[in-house]
Amino acid sequence: MAERSVQLLLLLIQGCSILAVELSTHNQNPVVQEHQSVELSCIITSTKTKDPRIEWKKIKNDDADYVYFEKRIQGGLEGRANIQSKSSLFIKNTSRTDNGKYRCEVAALEDDKKIAEIYISLTVQVKPVIPQCRVPKAVPVGKSAVLHCQENEGYPSAVYRWYRNSEALPDDSKSTLKFQNSSFTFNPKTGTLTFTAVNKGDMGRYYCIASNDAGSAKCEEQELEVYDLNIGGIIGGILVVLVVLALITGGVCCAYRKGYCTSSSSRSSGQSYKTPAKPEGVNYMRTNDEGDFRHKSSFVI
Ligand SMILES: *[C@@H]1O[C@H](CO)[C@@H](O)[C@H](O)[C@H]1NC(C)=O
Ligand SMILES: *[C@@H]1O[C@H](CO)[C@@H](O)[C@H](O)[C@H]1NC(C)=O
């Protein structure tokens, strides 16, 4: 019972305000592309006053900025907008900054309290610009790889799609038979294409398209190379290098030894060479070390 009487009261109040000023609109959520014109329609369908007070405000969080006040366009829309058909706001060259919620307020002059208002949500769409794409140049088989695609101008925010050799890639390689040999996942909202382990089949020319309701833009194609990381070959290569190093070291030592031998043989007629008695051997080693040291220091100098 109480509920019903409240409803009745509400109806009565509404009825009263309808008697004062009544507003309607052709479109409460107009959508337009940037630089196009748009009408925020606010139509007075009934009013007792001949000359009601008309105001437009742009809602900003809890605040509101004047757009049309005292019969003048104010703020950011100055010079770009005018009032049409008595109370509608016409924006000639929309800008992305015009996005937002507007309020049309109409008041019967005799009674300021009898205000009618209507909210219009304006969407100004912006085409995406050419996205920034990052593709690694070369990745070894089995390694992970991440491809990035992003742009920040589009409104609403762009969604992305990667293409390989002009073929659109799905969000998950495992979802399509065709890409079953690949191992990637893709997030269309972030533009990030992630390979857990690339294989030869992933080689190709990649590009990305950013798109929203206003349009799309494509980045330049980039080549992704996938190469074999041949472990056996690498180990073999390292071994060859080690062997060569060993041979060189051996050769250098031998050359030192020979140099020592020729000089010592000229001194002691190769005696120590033929009969290396223990103390002599120690001597030999020591002198050799000294010779080595001398050689090195002369090299340094
Ligand atoms: C609309 O405004 C932009 C700047 O925001 C300007 O570059 C462009 O020339 C204007 N277009 C028209 C048709 O006035
Ligand atoms: C996937 O790999 C297998 C084995 O290497 C091959 O036979 C098959 O043709 C590949 N599938 C595709 C779609 O490339």
From TrEMBL:
Compartments it resides in: Cell junction, Tight junction; Cell membrane
Keyword Signal: yes
Composition bias, Low complexity: 263-272
GO molecular function: cell-cell adhesion mediator activity; integrin binding; protein heterodimerization activity; protein homodimerization activity
Region forming the signal peptide: 1-20
Residue spans crossing the bilayer: 231-256
Gene Ontology, cellular component aspect: bicellular tight junction; cell-cell contact zone; plasma membrane; protein complex involved in cell adhesion
Keywords assigned: Cell junction, Cell membrane, Disulfide bond, Immunoglobulin domain, Membrane, Signal, Tight junction, Transmembrane, Transmembrane helix
The Ig-like domain, residue ranges: 32-116, 128-225
One BP annotation, GO: cell migration
Annotated InterPro entries: Ig-like_dom, Ig-like_dom_sf, Ig-like_fold, Ig_sub, Ig_sub2, JAM-C
Region (Disordered): 262-289
Keyword Transmembrane in record: yes
Domain of life, per lineage: Eukaryota
PROSITE patterns: IG_LIKE (PS50835), PROKAR_LIPOPROTEIN (PS51257)
Topology in membrane: Single-pass type I membrane protein
Family membership noted in the UniProt record: Belongs to the immunoglobulin superfamily.
Protein name: Junctional adhesion molecule C
Organism: Xenopus laevis
Gene: jam3.L
